[in-house]
């Protein structure tokens, strides 16, 4: 049936496509959304697809100011989307270098590899691998299965691009959301008119419910993320937070003395010794108590329980998809054996030659073997790592590309694939006698590159689907993806490295890395390091991890998807609560639409005004967060920002509770605005 398909731009039509302006605009979009994704993934362990907002920006800015064609707009969207997917893969894994087993001086055995150059190399290699491995799959997955694999984000992006040609206006709502988020972030992060994290905690001396904390980091990006992922996932996420912060922490607070909690923090390297004040929760050795018991117990015990739950949830998710994985791999291999068309190949069927996939894979292995920036005791060590990357990459890129065709990039079980890769790599290392701390960074390199490659392959598949529908030249898209991967990686590595720089306040508390602190929890990366340490190093509190594993199993037996719940249990409630509020607003909007008899397709929901406004909130809030975080690292700028802060004045005038209530009112007003915009008439795909 796909042979009868007619793209929007006919194959014989000549039109500007891979131009300098389209590549530059795409790189700019990739840089912006890549940096925003780094920030969001470090804080919340979540990402949202950037393809649709980039397509919206392309048809608006591109057509209005640069007179771009639909094919140029497609290149902008294709180039830009690489940044978001690579950023997600990087942040989900590579900060794990900081959390591997301690070596000399108590410093992580992988810390020396957590530098800009190593992150840059791994990000580029992983991004290129994802695109390379997708080249031979395009014809089988995108063309031959056009009718059976919908690729929801790719189809929605194509609808946006076609609407742009017909005069459709989508960007206004997204830009309103962006503006609201920037103004809100200015009031919150610079002027401090809005409290950042309103909280209420019961006292440790409370005999009924000690050290129970309810808090919310009331930011526009969290509200937007919650609206986009919807009420079901947001509800399961916050349920995990409720278990951790309102069940486990009060229980442990009533049973465990402060000295025992402090000793556990010393064991984990978060506190120097029992005689030194500070650490999570601000330990006071003179009174043997913490200023914030809930934070101390969270870091000492609950975080490891959450890590065990996330590991089990990811692995269970992967097990559930094994039938799909096997059939996907078989179908894709079968299609590769079929002979391609002979004779003149239409423009819309021209791919980069398969020989470059082979050459690129060989070059990748050799570079990994000889580059000194990558971990490994010898060239032989590194060659095995390179071969494992290519082997696992070929398999999971195939799996990722087909799965996103069915369920979309947002539901792609990347964490499960990465966990399986890390476990498989560690078992291979053990089989050849490579055990101990020295091999932990090598295992993380394999897992990190596969995570980046699988994430980028999923995004690449959606881009190629958009291109197939609008009539793009695949070879031009593939070149754009290579360019986007390299350029975005330049900024992604820098953003990760810069956000890891501790502020003066952090350094005063003895924190040497901002990543891993409450500011940037990096939940996925911590999990990957925990698994590697547990298998290769044996340095793991299995009693807490196994509690998390069986929490995940319990949820699955109850029919609840455990991965989202586990992530919620791992993250602070301050992260999941505002996300839940965004999801609840989406649920209310959907309920009102159903009562009104409005039925929307998946594409129409993606392009709805509520979704576009929420996308603007995510982009604006995350970008503002990155900018403020970068500025705050500089002591002079930080001191200047402190001078314009209204925090102390408002707190004196309103009191601590009144100041926090003011922030909640601002957040409520933004939520009401999101609800009102979400209730506005949605875009009809039939009219595109």
TrEMBL record:
InterPro entries: Oligopep_transpt (IPR004814), OPT (IPR004813), YSL-like (IPR045035). Keywords: Membrane, Transmembrane, Transmembrane helix, Transport. The chain crosses the membrane at residues 20-42, 48-66, 86-107, 113-135, 169-187, 233-256, 354-371, 383-404, 416-436, 442-459, 479-499, 569-589, 610-633, 653-675. The keyword Acyltransferase does not apply. The keyword tRNA-binding does not apply. Its main location: membrane. It is found in: Membrane. It holds the Pfam family OPT. It is a multi-pass membrane protein. This is Oligopeptide transporter, OPT family. It comes from Chitinophaga pollutisoli.
